[in-house]
Amino acid sequence: MELVDTHCHLDIPECFPRFDEALGMARAAGVQTLILPGVDQAGWQRMMSLCRREAGVFAAPGLHPLYLSRHHTHHLEELSTLAGKGEIVAIGEIGLDYFVQSLDRDAQQQLFEKQLQIAASARLPILLHVRKAHDKVLATLRKKRFAFGGIVHAFNGSLQQARQFIQLGFCISVCGTLTYDRARRIRNVAIELPRESLVLETDAPDIPPANHRGEGNRPEYLPEVLDALAALRGEPRELTAEYTTVNARRVLGLAGSTKENRVPRPEPPPLP
To answer: What are phi and psi of 33, to 5 degrees?
Structure first.
């Protein structure tokens, strides 16, 4: 089986000081493709360097809503230039976070919309960070007529909201939360959604599976998310691995082999 970790921060040296070792352990566990999302401009250079060096490791630079104080106008200009070079697979992680009450919502909204425009201009999908703001993100995607889809990372909304994202061309990503019995809402979402809309992630070093509670999360733990999803849906893990991998490659415009880079993206479907 070849798995795709659609969201892990393996490039952050404070969390993964031995990148090569962590990548090797992930691949030994069957995780052959990894997507590294950005959080701020300061991390983009290392991210791009690692992705240029390693086959099957892809960059998704972006400006995270939690770190507003780190972002500046020229970072958006730099992101636009980077997006136009054809080296990255998505803009991420971007979005809105209403869980943290102290964050300026207007500033978040402006940052989100500007990055949506960059993604649209480059015909790139996005990796969405959304907490307590699903309806606002959905409204923004519709208002801006964003047509290039992407992935809703570590989804924590309702089944109805998940279906609305799917209608807009997004996949729903499940992570270690799925392994906790108390996570009834996301487990129900994972059961009910069509297989064509589901992908896997770790969000390493965050959201460890239940068997690693209290530890830092690692990409090599992705098979535990796979097993939880397969068990909930009552299907063979090989089937779950196959369709989640196919979905990730499709939505991110990746070729079928980890040795190949991005493939040309088709024309986006009309918005509903």
So the answer is: -125, 130
Q: Strands, E, within the chain: which ranges? A: 3-5, 31-37, 57-60, 91-97, 126-131, 150-152, 170-174, 198-200
Summarize the chain as % helix, strand, coil (round to 5). Answer: 45, 15, 40
3 closest CA partner among 191, 197, 259, 238? 238
List the strands of the sheet with 31-37, edge to edge: 3-5, 31-37, 57-60
Q: Helix 73-83 to helix 44-53 angle, to the nearest 10 degrees? A: 20
Q: How far apart are CA 61 and CA 197, in angstroms?
A: 23
The answer, yes or no, to whether residue 255 has pLDDT greater than 80, is no
What Rg, from alpha-carbon coordinates, does the chain have?
17
- In whole angstroms, give the CA distance from residue 181 to residue 23: 29
Strands of 16-84, DSSP E: 31-37, 57-60
Secondary structure letter of residue 132 according to DSSP: S
Tokens of 3: 């798995």
Query: pTM of the predicted model, to two decimals?
Result: 0.94
Using the structure block, give the residue that is written with the tokens 């989640």: 244
Distance (Å, rounded) from C-alpha 191 to C-alpha 200? 14
- What are the pLDDT digits (tens) for 130-142? 999 999 999 999 9
| 241 burial via Cβ count (<10 Å: 0-12, 13-18, 19+) | buried
Measure the CA–CA gap between 136 and 140, rounded to whole angstroms. Answer: 6
